[in-house]
Design a protein that fits this description.
This protein is mainly α. Helix content is 97%, strand content 0%. The protein is built from 1 helix and no strands. It has one helix at residues 2-77.
Amino acid sequence: MLDEARHEIDVLVCSIENSKSAFENSKAEWEQRELHLVSCLKKDEEEKVSLEKEIKDCFICLKKLRMKLMPTRRKKLS
């Protein structure tokens, strides 16, 4: 009976060690995924800022073009 109890303790200790190992592996995997997500968010934010600047530049060019063409339109309408 004492041998059975010791065996059961060994089995439980082994089970606990396996659970700890699985937990550490899961935690490390989760942290890697979290880092990847943060990296993707930063990249998306940089892309968004770049696109916003490009759109602003396009609007500026369009406004300049309209201003440049205004006198031409007025002459045609007259």
